[in-house]
Amino acid sequence: MNLQNKGYLNDYRVNFLNNSTIISIEITCCGKHIGEMRFQDGERKTCPQCGTVHTVTIQHNHFHIRPVKSDSKEQTYDAEILEEKVL
Fold first, then answer.
1. Where are the alpha helices (DSSP H) in 1-87?
2. I need a labelling partner for 74 at 20 to 30 A (CA). Which of 48, 56, 81, 85 fits?
3. Each residue's pLDDT tens digit, 9-48
4. Closest C-alpha to 23, from 39, 11, 42
């Protein structure tokens, strides 16, 4: 029996068509489904809880899904910029 996402906080599910063409990637981060990204180079999704940025990088015959945890200082700085733009 395959236990889906058992004991993992981060997970990726690749969706594809009948002809094996990859169309999208669903992302689970911090134990919660945070969304889906298209299978295109440079697509990214940010976890609203921890700020990790999940990015798709496509190369000539393979691809990477990279989670990059942002620094708390960067998150604070980004929040300050956003607040400044709103004001």
1. 72-86
2. 56
3. 789 999 999 999 999 999 999 989 999 999 999 999 999 9
4. 39
73 SS3 class:
helix
Question: How far from each other are the two terminal CA atoms of the chain, in whole angstroms?
Answer: 53
- Rounded Cα–Cα distance for residues 7 and 22 (Å): 26
Q: What is the pTM of this model?
A: 0.69
Q: State both tokens at 43.
A: 């697509």
What is d(CA 27, CA 74) in angstroms, rounded to the nearest whole number?
A: 22
Distance of CA 47 to the CA centre of its chain: 7
Query: Could you give the 3-state DSSP secondary structure of residue 51?
Result: coil
